[in-house]
Amino acid sequence: MDIRNITGLKALKERVTLEEIKRIVGDVVEARDSLFKKFCIHISHRYGGFSLKEIGRFYDMKESAVSQASGRFRQTIMREQSLRKLLEQIVTKLDLSNVET
Q: How far apart are CA 28 and CA 24, in angstroms?
């Protein structure tokens, strides 16, 4: 059984905020690095449980741009082991390792 997608378990964990995601990403990836915003958007979308609209409002982007950015970055992460390691670090720090949406 894959527990990452069980709705009830997701509800038990208090939801991380977009600000917290941004702060933790900044602890791992410098804010001025080109990867910073990509990680923030991807993690908010794939792990944070936020809607495209919520993320778009927070980062001043259209919903479609959020979706495209997250999807493209996911493909990049899948190709680059160093980015997968950074993602794992961030997700672990956020305690979201079992909460992929």
A: 7
**Residue bearing tokens 């602890």:** 27
* Count: domains in the chain: 1
Which residues, including other chains, have CB under 8 Å from residue 64's CB and lie 6 or more apart? Answer: 52
Report whether 41 contacts 54 (CB < 8 A). Answer: no
The rounded distance, in Å, linking the Cα atoms of 83 and 74 is 10
Q: What is the pTM of this model?
A: 0.81
C-alpha to C-alpha distance for 101 and 98, rounded to whole angstroms: 9
Task: Compute the residue count for the chain.
Answer: 101
Question: Does a structural domain hold residue 12?
Answer: no
CB proximity list for 101: less than 8 A, separation 6 or greater: 5, 10, 45, 46, 47, 48, 49
Run means of pLDDT, 10 residues per run, the chain, 101 residues: 49 78 94 93 94 96 96 96 95 75 49
